[in-house]
Structure formats: structure tokens, C-alpha cells
């Protein structure tokens, strides 16, 4: 099951802040990019963020699960609390690297 367009729109609205947001369909679900950094993974109408030490305080009560079979566990982000979403994004945006450019096949 994939995330619904309504859920993706809702997450994008909740994440609005002083950064550029875009979403891209991938892996059968969606990735949300914050200033071109892949930060939010949307799978089955749930939002996942990578487990990093910098989020220990903010996400201490969050549930953890694998977003898809074979994936590492991630925090499940409560997107109903827009202020919390923005705090998490403000922590993750500076520490998440930009994706490396892929070489094109010729």
C-alpha cells in the first residue's frame, strides 16, 4: 500500500517553514526533501525519520519501525504536531548530506 496524495499534501503543509520543500515518488512511496536533502520518508501513510543521536531528546517517546521490509528502523514522526515536525526538520536539515550526483549511463 502506498501513501495517499492527501496524506502527502498534509505532511507537506505541516512541514512548511523557512526551507524549500519538495516531494518525489520513489520506492513506491514518497520522499520529502528539505533544501534538497532527503529527510522524510512517507510509507503507507506514516512518516519516518532516520534515527540519529541529535534527535534523541526530541523523539524519545516516538515509536520505531522499519518503513519497508529490509529497512533499518526509523522513528515514526507524529505529523499532527506541526511545531514538533518543524523542530525535527530544523535538527535534521543541517546534518543530512545532499545526495551525491549519479553518473549517467551512455
From TrEMBL:
This is Transcriptional regulator. It comes from Bifidobacterium crudilactis.
